[in-house]
């Protein structure tokens, strides 16, 4: 993706990009995260101002509609790559080996699994300090924002 180095220089990581072509118009949706802070409307506006003129030039006569947004509070993960992007955030996964929803903070992710901390196994109402979940055991995953976690500034 040609915009990634430009975004990296701004301290922003591209989570997802989607393009839909309809006749003479093109709709592009970008989802971003900021590396050192919560992503804000200001981040979205800066990315929009940076990317829009470049995309418009590439498209020539076609009409461009560009949307730059945050991942949202409960983004559904599209692939395992996102576990690395959201390190430090709370995630909720359906673990097929436990046949239960598991919520925890992403401590780290490698090629095969994700390490969670402050884990809550929902069906068992059980709290455990850390847990590793193999990606092959994850049926579904999404960000899991909890209001009570907001006391530490996230």
UniProtKB/TrEMBL annotation:
Keywords: Cytoplasm, Ribosome biogenesis. Signal peptide: none annotated. Residues 4-73 form the Ribosome maturation factor RimP N-terminal domain. It comes from the Bacteria. Pfam families: RimP_N. It is found in: Cytoplasm. Required for maturation of 30S ribosomal subunits. Belongs to the RimP family. This is Ribosome maturation factor RimP.
């Amino acid at each position: 993706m040609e915009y990634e180095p430009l975004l990296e220089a701004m301290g922003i990581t591209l989570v997802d990009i989607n393009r839909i072509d309809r006749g003479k118009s093109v709709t592009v949706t970008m989802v971003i995260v900021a590396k050192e802070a919560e992503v804000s409307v200001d981040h979205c506006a800066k990315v929009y101002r940076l990317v829009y003129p470049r995309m418009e030039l590439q498209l020539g006569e076609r009409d461009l509609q560009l949307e730059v947004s945050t991942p949202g509070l409960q983004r559904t993960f599209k692939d395992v790559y996102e576990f690395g992007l959201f390190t430090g955030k709370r995630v909720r996964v359906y673990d097929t080996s436990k046949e239960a929803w598991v919520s925890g903070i992403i401590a780290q992710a490698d090629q095969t699994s994700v390490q969670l901390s402050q884990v809550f196994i929902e069906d068992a109402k059980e709290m455990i300090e850390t847990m590793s979940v193999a990606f092959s055991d994850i049926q579904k995953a999404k960000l899991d924002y909890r209001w009570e976690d907001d006391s530490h500034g996230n």
